[in-house]
Design goal:
The protein is mostly beta strands. Helix content is 3%, strand content 47%. The strands form three sheets. Strands 1, 2, 4, 6, 10 and 12 form a six-stranded parallel β-sheet that branches. Strands 3-5-7-11 form a four-stranded parallel β-sheet, with no helix packed on it. Strands 8-9 form a two-stranded antiparallel sheet.
């Protein structure tokens, strides 16, 4: 989307929240480069490694992501290898994941990463994240350092960090 024309993914009308069932794929919902996007009023279930994964695969900034009024649950791992990936969970913002594989064969060790990318202006509001065997409920990764041999230097560069992230009314 754009600042004047947002994309909205969500329920319409009244009644129970529609269910997005990931059927145990890596991510029940994968939002790639989600600028000016709102996801709202939905139930997300049955991801294997992530319920909702918001990520980026190009250099630059992804701006204006809103996740609101969501229920995310039953993300339980499948054949997930815990020793290799600790940034997993129900709602995960992880910039720089390229070519997300649909299998766990290598535990993520051979993936490609984009390091010059981050999020700006993200709102996570009224998101209920529960029932997982993975690392986190709501997890925000500020920048991509996976496999970066100069991570100490790069972590100090504020221009590479995600910023203006708000999580409220969520558990």
């Amino acid at each position: 989307g754009t600042s004047s024309n947002r994309i909205t993914i969500g329920a319409y009308g009244t009644g129970a929240q529609p269910i997005l069932n990931g059927n145990f794929s890596q991510a029940a919902v994968e939002l790639m480069n989600p600028s000016y996007l709102t996801m709202q009023d939905l139930e997300v279930i049955n991801g294997r490694t992530w319920g909702i994964l918001a990520t980026t695969n190009v250099p630059g900034v992804s701006t204006g992501l809103t996740l609101q009024n969501l229920n995310v649950h039953h993300v339980t791992g499948g054949v997930y290898q815990t020793q290799n990936r600790k940034w997993t969970g129900l709602v995960v913002l992880a910039p720089g994941v390229i070519d997300l594989p649909q299998t766990d064969a290598d535990g993520g060790l051979q993936w490609n990463w984009e390091r010059l990318t981050h999020f700006d202006t993200v709102l996570i509001d009224n998101v209920s994240a529960y029932d997982t065997t993975l690392w986190g409920g709501i997890f925000v990764w500020g920048m991509q350092l996976e496999g970066d041999t100069q991570w100490k230097k790069h972590a100090l560069d504020r221009t590479r960090r995600s910023k203006n992230i708000t999580v409220r009314n969520s558990l």
